[in-house]
Amino acid sequence: MPELRFSTAVAKSLPNYALISSDSGFGKVYEAYERSEPKILKVLKEDFNRNSKVVDLFQQEARVLSQLHHPGIPGVEAGGYFTFTPQGSEQPLHCIVMEKIDGPNLRQWMQQQGHNPISEKQALDWLYQLMEVLHLIHHKNYFHRDIKPENIMLRSSGQLVLVDFGAARHITATYLAQLGQSGGITALSSAGYTPPEQEQGQAVPQSDFYALGRTVIYLLTAKHPTDSGLYNSFSNEFNWREVASQVSPGFSRLLNRMISPRAIDRPQNTQVILEEIQALRAAASQLPVQFPARSVELSGADITTAADYSELAESDTETALQGKRLAKLRSPLVPKSKFLGLAVLGLLIALSVGIWQGVEQKTWFPWSDRPSVAEVTSVELTQVLQEHTNPINALLLTVGNNQLISASADKTIKVWDLTRNEVWQTLRGHTSFINAIA
Q1: CA 60, 63, 69, 73 torsion: positive or negative?
Q2: From CA 307, how far away is CA 329, in angstroms rounded?
Q3: What CATH number corresponds to the domain at position 72?
Q4: Is 292 left (phi over 0), alpha (psi -120 to 50) or beta?
Q5: Which residues touch 179 (CB under 8 Å, ≥6 apart)?
Q6: Euclidean distance between CA atoms 387 and 410, whole angstroms
Q7: What's the alpha-carbon Rg for the chain, to the nearest Å?
Q8: What mean pLDDT, rounded, does the chain reach?
């Protein structure tokens, strides 16, 4: 019954707070409202009140967050940490009030997206975002020590946020001197993401690179690092590359260096990684976009279209026409890039003359009566439509009235007028990601 008494005590003392989760390590998480603005209240569980090390870690999270100001870090004001003693209790409760992030963590996001691997482009963009956050943290002489998909949240704006700084460590001369001593440092571990040196209680700033590299590989493969498809426990080998064919050799080399078993073999600092990501982006932008021909069945019609989207998608895309008037683009492996869906629109428009002429003739094509469509060997992007603030998950192109319907993780559906290249209508009301258009 201590859990019930705990929640009841908080509810009576702080009536504007509602319990969100009791499964948050050392603490309970509540949703709070401060002048109608949603906040997060973390309260240390009473069982840990007498554990000075746990209390210190809890206080440290508030101290670290109050010193770091970045959209990729939850905001905590200077007075964000406080204690109060509920009526009838002799034990004070330790509390932190912080910014509420309006989005899922990356583990939840992958579930919502159907556990589909992301593209290299999206992985590079996200890695750069998170490396900028680590750049700030490390320059403040802290390192996180617990990076994993559950501790990275995605704002509705598309900004990634690194959370749970309870394990963050301040780099001091005393800490560095203790690294060679057994039992001097607290060991924190998350299977598959924690580097070998941290398992031994001797984490260093480069330990964050290992955990972040493993996190990016999870996103690229949609497999947990301990999955038997990646990790062989008999040979102690981690082979992820075969599962992520969309990853270029250059990016693969960077990730492999980040997850090197020895910290000395990893990149020296955040600046090195940021510069390598910029170089990989620049190299990718200079590559010609090639579209090898591939046969795709369209409602009984066999036409030739493009299969390899290279830097746009780096994964196969299945195109299908449904009925006489609607054409739906389904892409279970296409990366959830903010503008990718509308970039693919350029591909559809380029192919539209041959496709739509056939559609208008008949609702379906018997095998003996299929129209002849010229082979398309190259496609040029002619227009990028920018309105959604989060990844686009589904597209629906209507034939005849020249409209495109797009569904996004920003919780909106937009109807586009392609004759004017502008939004005709925005549909709101969804409370979560929109992954399909019926």
Answers
A1: positive
A2: 13
A3: 3.30.200.20
A4: beta
A5: 185, 202, 204
A6: 10
A7: 25
A8: 73
Q: What is the pTM of this model?
A: 0.61
Cα–Cα distances in Å, from 129 out to 65, 230, 314? Answer: 18, 26, 21
- Among 349, 239, 370, 350, which Cα is nearest to 303's? 370
CA distance 337 to 217: 17
Q: Which pair of tokens denotes residue 2?
A: 């201590």
Could you read off the pLDDT of 118-141 as tens digits, one per residue?
Answer: 999 999 999 999 999 999 988 887
Tokens of 104: 């899922």
* H or E segment and range at residue 198: helix 196-199
Domain end point (choices 46, 69, 99) = 99
Q: How many alpha carbons fall within 13 Å on the CB side of residue 187?
A: 14
Chain centre distance of CA 349? 30
Both 7 and 58 in one domain: the answer is yes
Q: State pLDDT tens for residues 44-89.
A: 888 888 888 888 888 887 888 888 889 998 888 888 889 888 888 8
87 and 157 together in one domain: no
Torsion of CA 172, 177, 181, 186, to 10 degrees: 0
CA distance 326 to 303: 17
Beta strands at 81-84 and 160-162: parallel, antiparallel or unpaired = unpaired
Length of the chain: 438
> Do both 301 and 407 map to the same domain?
yes
